[in-house]
Specification:
Elements (H helix, E strand, L loop, with lengths): L1 H44 L11 H5 L9 E5 L5 E5 L4 E3 L12 E5 L6 E5 L5 H10 L4 E3 L2 E3 L3 E6 L11 H14 L26 E4 L5 H8 L4 E6 L4 E6 L3 H4 L1 H56 L3 H27 L5 H20 L3 H25 L5 H5 L1 H49 L1
Parallel strand pairs: 1-11
Antiparallel strand pairs: 1-2, 2-5, 3-4, 6-7, 8-9, 8-10, 10-11
Helix pairs in contact: 7-8, 7-9, 7-10, 10-12
Length: 452
Amino acid sequence: MRQPSKFFSTANHDENEPDNKARNLSQRVVDEQEREVRAVQHQVRRPWHRDGADTAPADRSGEEVGTVTKGKLLTTPTRLLKLILPLPIEVEKDRENNSQHDYGRSISANDRIQPLALLIHPQQPLSYVERLIQAELPPVVENGKDKIPSIYFRAEDMEQGDNKPTTRSEARDRDSEAESRSSSPTHVASYSGLGHEGPERQGSDKNWVRWSSSTEMGDFIRDAARGREFAVEIEGYHVEIRVSVPSFRDRTYYMRAQLGKMSGQIDRLSRIKRECDLLAHQGANRLAKSGFALLSGWWGVVYYVTFHTEFGWDLVEPVTYLAGLTTIMGGYLWFLYISRDLSYKAAMNVTVSRRQNALYEARGFDIHKWDHLVQEANALRREIKMIAIEYDVDWDEAKDVGDAVKKVLSEERTNAGEKTRSLEKEKEKDEEFTQEERKRTSESSSTGDTRS
């Protein structure tokens, strides 16, 4: 009886073995999937915990990339600043994303990782740049706890002195020495605008000042441009990244290039406009002269008919009255149509503007395109001049745009200012007239109520 039972148990074991293998295989697949999901979630929370984080991206593609040890601050065509920072940080690994053998903290210094690029607006504070850099760094361990590393921005101080705390006696001695050496003021900041193009100074001659994180990036760069570079210090990693500062020419490179490109179009269009304006003014002058000739001819006809014909003054008198009255009525209606002041300048402007529009259309000159182009060019000039004032640099405008274009832009800006002022004056007059009419209406209505 034992043999059949033994045979039965063996058969039972053989039948369950495939199920167990399938179950174990399925469980291993599920465990691997769960580990992959956890690893992806961990990578989302902390990007530096990615698989192969200690290998530079250039190494995986087989390209050779030199080690970047210094950052750069570049200008872009969109007025934004491109900050390039090499982050030679050490990579932290975790057990879930790596095997136990590979697990460790600070296994390899990732010196050859590709630099980090950040786009920054000049009006954004340094605290915004600090948060962007912190998002790319793993936390540091302080007293057994993870802590986000602080970022400090330091710039060179070009003034005299080492900016170190001193006692009262030491400060008095230093002040007396400074007064004996030079009588020039020492509390005036000097600006050069040379940036990285300036003379190189030794490390012992540099005095560094840490800037507040609430300072705008543009203000920080303008002050840092007095030296060749500024420093970005990362807490906990003992890393100080030197970043070269853009000079005035670097900061305004794209603006000056765009202005130079516009200057060619402005020069070509200004010639066409100058010819059309000259022809229009000549036509208006000829029209004015022909009007005087017509009046002189009318005077001669009246004189001849009155004194040298048999019709005499009896016929000429009513004709002259009617002709004069018709002229006055026609002029009055014309000025009502143009809605301008009764002046020679207004009549000339209307005549010239009509002739100009006809010539512009015949020559293919678009006045709206011209106005838009001039406005953009003047806006660029204003922006470059503001940066030149901030950098304390004399900008040679004629070198970038030319003397002729500079003169045209200045004239157009002056004319636009005069038109704006005249429109404002007309608007003020209309408002004053409206207020006076309202006062008269209210006074008359109050007088009528009193009488009633």
